[in-house]
Amino acid sequence: MQHEPLVTTAWPSTILSHAARQALPIDDLCARVGLSPQTLRDPSQQVPARLALQLFDECLVSGADAQFGCEMRVQLSTTCLQGLNVLLDSAATVGASLHCLVEFLPRWIGHAQPTLHAEGVFYRFTVHSSLTPHPFGLDSGALALVHNMARRAGRRPAELFAAAQITAEQSCGAQLESLGIPCSRGEHLAVLLPREVLSWPHPGANELLHQELRRTWQPPQATSHDTPAAERLHQARHWLRNTDQPLESIAQRAGYSSSSNFIRAFRSHYGMTPRQFRQRGA
């Protein structure tokens, strides 16, 4: 049974906070969407993702212009994703930060699933969604990603990103190009980074803080063991396809006590070893 995607209340709260700056009717927006102000005050709560998407639509009906999402970029970083940004800031390299984003962003925005995979001399970071994403959310996410990754590396955005792809409905193309990032239109939001960029260090990296934050965010090991084997292997297959994490790390994250046990289970289920699966790019 497929569960409805959820988002943390930090996401609709950020949308409403920005709407208030635009002098939009906050109480009316909440009422029309069916969001309770009491629920939004608790950052540990989650609400259906469709309500956050509907909230964007209601903002548009109430007078928000096409730049609403672009202008929400700063609040997305400082309010909605502040905890995640601390984790990403403390990572040792650009690549480590991106891998954390792939792993943990769905905790905040349940319908968003980033992927990172090699594509020739580049790596492509793509944001997929189990729901039809709203251009406001994609605009704020694209600009937050570009600015924050550049800030962490101490570089200009054009030094990190070779190109960007945005959807037909997005409005952030001019801003990306003003940063020196060539922009095209496509089905998904995506950015292209030269391979060598992933090894660039973060000047503000803090390994002790990073590992402590990862332990805090990582689900308990018992949770992995309690998950049905087929589901754990399916998740491991996703990591093999979309990340370059070592097999040992994937085996541990999938709840296996050793790499050999993981390889044995994977081969029994899929008819090939994890390494063969990764090499085939299946």
From TrEMBL:
Database matches in Gene3D superfamilies: Homeodomain-like
Domain HTH araC/xylS-type: 232-280
Keyword Transcription: yes
InterPro entries: AraC-type_N (IPR032687), Homeodomain-like_sf (IPR009057), HTH_AraC (IPR018060), HTH_AraC-typ_CS (IPR018062), Tscrpt_reg_AraC-type_HTH (IPR020449)
Keywords (A to Z) from UniProt: DNA-binding, Transcription, Transcription regulation
Top-rank lineage group of the source organism: Bacteria
Protein name per Swiss-Prot or TrEMBL: Helix-turn-helix domain-containing protein
